[in-house]
């Protein structure tokens, strides 16, 4: 799951997360394109609510993360969007926590940025079935990278978590499929109906 | 076809039941044993989950697994403070504290003396067959059995993410976006004023 609660991670991991997130936020705000703000707000709200629709997997439960989608559509603006939505989730729902906010933002925003950088250009050039496929790939990559980062954070915090990391990756597999489908169809739809939403180059 | 693209993601989203993503633990004392359950806030029970129970010195006493309903029970040797922890093994964690005074004062089989200045209940004429401490224990257990599930239901409903929470969060997000846009508008205005003083 993408929301690591307070009290699970060790202090060095928490500090690293906070530093990385601060850096990402600073970079994102410097590059902030004000024309993206309404889209960022809408996606931030979607991300905020998506966490409520979760499905049990084994002893755990997973929900859509949407970070691939956010990254591809928003580019750098995804970082503040994710950050704000995570604060709201911690405050209103008690998911994650304020101390681990840095780590959680890093785990979700870094994959979003990678999706934007690696898959964004290909997606914008594609059309028809290919945009569907590239969209699905970015959804799956976003989840896969987040799962890897979450496992890494847990694994680095204590050796007990190494088996835990395997559980994370196992529960993320069904999520990857769902996320790929949602992201693929959403991006396919946007490219067809309102391509200007994603064609603004970074 | 484009309409299908619009509907499919929505269907996929609605496929999961609306439930939250927060692991919760609840436990209560009934007589001498601890009953509890683990669940995800607002939704499913956490079945097959590892539960550990440790005493006040953080010494782990026992490690259990929840049943298909997410429930577990444990009978400690003595009344006392117990920490119950649940861990899905990948970052979901929950804790619950059982305090010593939650245990029935008439803890059975020799352990009862811990109570100390326990008031001597004068036997009322109704049930002379049972000695007073035993009767008190029976009553406490019966009440605990009745109230435990109620307390759990109350706890669960408190844990649920409410519509007001959701709307509040969404409102905040749009409010922040509004502030950013207002800020940009002001910056632009200033720039215009600076370049064109009239």
Tell me about this structure.
The complex is a heterodimer of chains A (202) and B (198). Chain A is mainly alpha-helical. Chain A contains nine helices and two strands. In chain A, strand 1 and strand 2 form a beta hairpin. Chain A is globular and about 45 Å long. Chain B is of the alpha+beta class. Helices cover 38% and strands 22% of the residues of chain B. The model of chain B is unreliable at 6-20 and 109-121 (pLDDT under 50). The chains are: A mainly alpha (202), B alpha+beta (198).
Number of strands of chain B: 7
Helix/strand-derived category of chain B reads: alpha+beta
Order of helices and strands of chain B: HEEEEEEEHH
Our count of helices of chain A gives: 9
Summarize the structure.
In chain A, 73% of the residues lie in helices and 4% in strands. The radius of gyration of chain A is 16 Å and the shape is globular.
Layout of strands and helices, then pairs:
The complex is a heterodimer of chains A (202) and B (198).
Chain A lengths: L10 H20 L6 H14 L3 E4 L2 E4 L3 H8 L3 H16 L7 H18 L1 H6 L3 H29 L3 H33 L2 H4 L3
Antiparallel strand pairs in A: 1-2
Helix pairs in contact in A: 1-4, 1-5, 2-3, 2-4, 3-4, 3-5, 3-7, 4-5, 5-7, 7-8
Chain B lengths: L1 H14 L7 E8 L2 E8 L9 E6 L4 E6 L5 E4 L7 E6 L5 E6 L33 H28 L3 H33 L3
Antiparallel strand pairs in B: 1-2, 2-5, 3-4, 3-6, 6-7
């Amino acid at each position: 799951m993408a929301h690591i609660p307070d009290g699970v991670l060790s202090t060095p991991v928490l500090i690293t997360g906070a530093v990385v997130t601060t850096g990402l936020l600073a970079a994102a705000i410097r590059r902030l394109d004000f024309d993206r703000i309404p889209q960022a707000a809408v996606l931030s709200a979607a991300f905020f609510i998506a966490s409520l629709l979760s499905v049990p997997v084994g002893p755990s439960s997973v929900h859509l993360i949407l970070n691939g989608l956010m990254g591809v559509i928003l580019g750098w603006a995804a970082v503040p969007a994710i950050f704000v939505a995570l604060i709201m989730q911690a405050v209103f729902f008690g998911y994650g926590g304020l101390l681990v906010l840095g780590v959680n933002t890093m785990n979700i925003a870094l994959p979003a940025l990678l999706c934007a950088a690696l898959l964004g250009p290909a997606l914008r050039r594609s059309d028809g079935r290919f945009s569907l496929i590239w969209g699905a790939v970015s959804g799956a990559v976003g989840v896969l990278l987040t799962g890897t980062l979450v496992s890494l954070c847990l694994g680095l915090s204590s050796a007990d978590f190494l088996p835990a990391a395997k559980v994370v990756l196992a529960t993320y597999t069904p999520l990857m499929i769902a996320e790929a489908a949602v992201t693929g169809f959403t991006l396919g739809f946007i490219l067809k109906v309102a391509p200007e939403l994603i064609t603004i180059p970074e | 076809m484009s309409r299908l693209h619009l509907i499919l993601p929505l269907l996929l989203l609605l496929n999961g039941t609306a439930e939250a993503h927060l692991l919760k633990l609840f436990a209560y004392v009934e007589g001498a044993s601890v009953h509890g359950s683990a669940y995800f806030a607002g939704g499913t029970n956490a079945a097959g989950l590892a539960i550990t129970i440790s005493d006040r010195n953080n010494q782990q006493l026992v490690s259990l697994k929840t049943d298909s309903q997410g429930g577990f029970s444990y009978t400690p040797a003595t009344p006392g403070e117990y920490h119950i922890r649940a861990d899905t093994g990948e970052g979901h964690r929950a804790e619950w504290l059982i305090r010593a005074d939650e245990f029935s004062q008439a803890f059975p089989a020799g352990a009862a003396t811990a109570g100390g200045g326990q008031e001597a209940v004068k036997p009322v004429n109704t049930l002379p067959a049972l000695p007073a401490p035993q009767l008190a224990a029976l009553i406490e257990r019966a009440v605990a059995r009745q109230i435990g599930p109620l307390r759990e239901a109350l706890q669960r409903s408190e844990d649920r993410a409410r519509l007001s929470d959701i709307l509040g969060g969404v409102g905040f997000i749009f409010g922040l976006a509004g502030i950013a846009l207002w800020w940009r508008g002001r910056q632009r205005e200033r720039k215009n004023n600076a370049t064109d003083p009239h």
